[in-house]
Amino acid sequence: MSPKGDDLSDKQARRSEAKHRFVPLSLFASAPARQPPQDWDAVLRCHNCRGRFTVRKLPLKRIALVPQVAPCPHCAARAFAPAKKLHQIVDLRLAKD
Question: Per the structure, how many domains does the chain have?
């Protein structure tokens, strides 16, 4: 075989590979259908008495605020930010209707 024959087969092989390359989705593709906002139940542990309590039906963007503002139902303790004493989020689950 001549060197030109090998060159042609290489070119054909490269063309067939180019046709079957993986192409990622466009960054500008249409967004998936929007789902209604979901509510969450957060289980917290008090920083003072270590008791557990649940705060129900929270939107996801409010979850981070709950340990800072929710009073403990057992001892009425609130978070104390300067001392960095906050209630801990123990569990987070999708709210049941």
Answer: 1
In-domain check, residue 30: no
Is residue 94 situated within a structural domain?
Answer: yes
Model confidence at 57: pLDDT above 90? yes
Cα–Cα distance between 86 and 26 in angstroms, integer? 43
Indicate the residue type of 65. Answer: L
Q: With a cut of 80, say whether residue 88 has pLDDT above it.
A: yes
Q: Could you please report the per-residue DSSP string of 72-89?
A: PTTT----BTTTTB--EE
Cα–Cα distance for residue pair 94/25, rounded to 1 Å: 30
Hey, which residues does 43 pair with through a beta bridge?
Answer: 54, 91
Q: Is the model's pLDDT at 65 over the cut of 70?
A: yes
